[in-house]
Design a protein that fits this description.
The protein is 35% helix and 18% strand. It has two domains: 21-82 and 144-313, no CATH class; 84-139 and 319-323, no CATH class. The strands form two sheets. The protein has a nine-stranded mixed beta sheet. The protein has a two-stranded antiparallel sheet with strand order 1-2. It contains nine helices and eleven strands. It is of the alpha/beta class and 326 residues long. Helix 1 (84-99) packs across helix 9 (310-323), helix 4 (142-157) packs across helix 9 (310-323) and helix 5 crosses helix 6.
Length: 326
């Protein structure tokens, strides 16, 4: 028996990939235009509203604005007002489904209990705690909790965000815990048969102790230093993907990264409470500095996820996870 069907996450569900349409957003100095932006359809009940809102596109519960700059193609995803509870619930389910993907019995139990079903046996509670609470057991460990939520938000949003190379063909997020060694994520793009491109991602949380630019620069240094090791770890999952092209890519991906091949790219995602008005003019200048060997900004991608209170939001996600356990 397979796992229960997964509903659309964060108000977004991809049914098809219509042709790209050009999008150009004016920026400060260092403009770079002509990147294709794709908007996919969604099913009834989870309407994805493609409409202007202050220069952005509304996707489910987030307003998304793409900026094409010489430093990077970067995306700002702002949580819409009064939507935190819905997004926290959806994010918690995304986390549970990801961590319990190979355990349909525990996943079904978690979904049932979260919806008000009967309590679990002690054995089932122990299994669920072991699988789900690596990053969420201690609500006092704010840094780890917020970092885990920021990373999972990237995983939720990544399949539906069209950056420099359009929508991903596949997003890899085989990360059991935010403190595990290894890369935080990988996006693979279909770039005209039979070619594929890939982007290695690093995810970070940001607080007021330093600037977003400093966090991005640190993440860029980290992924440059450790990227080969991260990709070597990911090859095991990719070689059993099922798409022959992705399986073939898995055998070459570490070499392509090390050689700075044009098929490779880098991304940094930051979860923050900093509003758009208070972001630095060039939040991804550190990404450009570290990865200036790439031929154009489409190889460098940034994502800033704005949550009004990351601390409160992370606690809401944890509470939703706990609902399915106890």
């Amino acid at each position: 028996m397979g796992s229960p069907a997964s509903p659309p996450l964060l108000g977004v569900s991809r049914l098809s990939r219509p042709p790209c349409h050009a999008s150009s957003t004016s920026t400060a100095s260092g403009e770079w235009h002509g990147v294709a932006v794709t908007v996919s359809e969604v099913e009834a009940g989870f309407e994805r509203m493609e409409r202007s809102q202050g220069g952005g596109i509304v996707i489910g519960w987030f307003t998304v604005t793409t900026t094409q700059h010489a430093d990077a193609v970067w995306i700002l995803a702002e949580l819409q007002p009064a939507q935190e509870d819905d997004v926290a619930a959806a994010a918690a389910e995304h986390i549970a489904r990801g961590l319990l993907v190979a355990m349909p019995g525990p996943l079904g139990s978690w979904l049932s209990r979260r919806a008000g079903g009967p309590p679990h046996t002690d054995v089932r509670v122990a299994v669920l705690e072991s699988a789900l609470l690596s990053d969420f057991e201690n609500d006092a460990n704010e840094i780890r909790l917020q970092g885990a939520v920021a990373e999972h938000l990237w995983a939720c949003l990544a399949p539906e965000l069209a950056g420099g190379w359009g929508l991903p063909l596949h997003v890899e997020h085989e990360h059991f815990s935010v403190i595990d060694h290894g890369g935080d994520g990988l996006s693979i793009y279909d770039f005209g048969a039979p070619d594929l491109r890939f982007r290695l991602w690093e995810s970070k949380r940001h607080d007021a102790a330093c600037s977003v630019t400093t966090v991005v620069s640190g993440a860029a240094d980290q992924v440059k230093r450790d990227g080969i090791r991260y990709l070597a770890r990911m090859t095991k999952a990719l070689q059993f993907h099922g798409d022959p092209r992705i399986e073939q890519l898995s055998g070459r991906i570490a070499d392509l990264w090390a050689e700075h091949d044009p098929s490779s790219g880098v991304g940094v995602s930051v979860g923050t409470t900093t509003t758009a008005a208070n972001l630095p003019a060039r939040p991804f200048q550190g990404l450009q500095r570290v990865f200036d060997m790439y031929p154009n900004p489409a190889h460098r991608e940034g994502l800033i996820i704005h949550i009004p209170s990351l601390q409160a939001f992370a606690q809401k996600v944890r509470a939703e996870i706990m609902k399915g356990i106890h």
